[in-house]
Structure formats: structure tokens, C-alpha cells
Design brief:
Largest sheet: 4 strands, antiparallel
Bound molecules: guanosine-5'-diphosphate
Number of helices: 7
Order of helices and strands: EHHEHHEHHEH
Helix content: 25-40%
Number of strands: 4
Distance between the termini: 19 Å
Strand order of the largest sheet: 2-3-1-4
Strand content: 15-25%
């Protein structure tokens, strides 16, 4: 087991429906500790940069429009195997395929408006954390 950090976003469909606390409770109950957190309004440029890996996908425009539609909460989570653990707590991308009890099964609207983002690797977690936070904002 290894103590890791991962990056999380509570997406606009969740902030809009006042589910920020409900999502955080799932993360904390799942064994993850929030060591940095801020509510922000993404700009189009920032969202496009974050999702650049998906820029050729047919849903890219829709994804960016969604991510800037309301504020988001960006967070750094810490815990044992945090990258994989967070993905387990989130559930599958498509809520119809997500396991019972996961954030996406309980709260997501559809495959696009799916309530949370979580880094898919330790390498990407580091890149994504640095995209949103400076060292002074990550306070253990
Ligand atoms: P994730 O790692 O589980 O978030 O999934 P991906 O990296 O494959 O996709 C990134 C995000 O793009 C997802 O969380 C969705 O918000 C969005 N997305 C993925 N597939 C679709 C799709 O088919 N349609 C739409 N509208 N959005 C999608």
C-alpha cells in the first residue's frame, strides 16, 4: 500500500444541484482526505487545456460547455492508493454502468454530466494537481 495524492473535480451538475457536501462525504467515507479544495469558475481556455487529451473526441465541445456552465470544486485527495480508490468511489464514466453506492451511480445525470472527475494515473494526478494548485494551497 502506498500513500498517494490524486486530483478531483466536483462537476457543474453536482454543484448546481447542491450536492457538493454529499460528494465530499462519499470521498471521506471512502477513506480519502481532502488536503486542498477551492470552488472556482473555469474559463473556456482553462477547461480546454485540462481536457486537451480529448480535443479530437466528438463530445469535446459539449464537455467544455458543460464544465464552464457553473462553478466547480477542485480538490486534492490523499490516501492509500488514492488514485485507484477515488476511481472506485466515483464509479464508471457512464452512470448506467456504475456500481451501486458509487458517486456516479447515485448522483450522475448521464455519461457527460457525471458529477466528478478523478485522475486516471499517478502521473496524470501530479500534472492535474499542478494545473490548479500551487504548493502553498496543498496543506495536508
Ligand atoms: P472518466 O475518466 O471516467 O472521467 O472518463 P473519460 O476520461 O473517458 O472522459 C472524460 C469525461 O468526458 C467524462 O467524465 C465525461 O464527462 C465526458 N464524456 C465521456 N464520454 C462522453 C460521451 O460519450 N458524451 C459526452 N457528452 N461526454 C462524455
Amino acid at each position: 500500500m502506498a500513500l498517494q495524492r490524486t486530483f478531483s473535480i466536483i462537476k457543474p451538475d453536482a454543484t448546481r444541484r447542491n450536492l457538493t457536501g454529499a460528494v465530499i462525504k462519499k470521498l471521506e467515507d471512502g477513506g480519502l482526505r481532502i488536503i486542498a479544495s477551492k470552488r472556482i469558475q473555469l474559463t473556456r481556455e482553462k477547461a480546454e487545456g485540462f481536457y486537451a487529451v480529448h480535443s479530437e473526441r466528438p463530445f469535446f465541445g459539449e464537455l467544455v460547455d458543460f464544465m464552464i456552465s457553473e462553478p466547480v470544486v477542485v480538490q486534492v485527495l490523499e490516501g492509500e492508493n488514492a488514485v485507484a480508490r477515488n476511481r472506485e468511489i466515483m464509479g464508471a464514466t457512464n452512470p448506467e454502468e456504475a456500481d451501486a453506492g458509487t458517486i456516479r451511480k447515485e448522483f450522475a445525470i448521464d455519461i457527460g454530466e457525471n458529477s466528478v472527475h478523478g485522475s486516471d494515473s499517478l502521473e496524470n494526478a501530479k500534472i492535474e494537481i499542478e494545473y490548479f494548485f500551487n504548493d502553498a494551497e496543498v496543506v495536508g
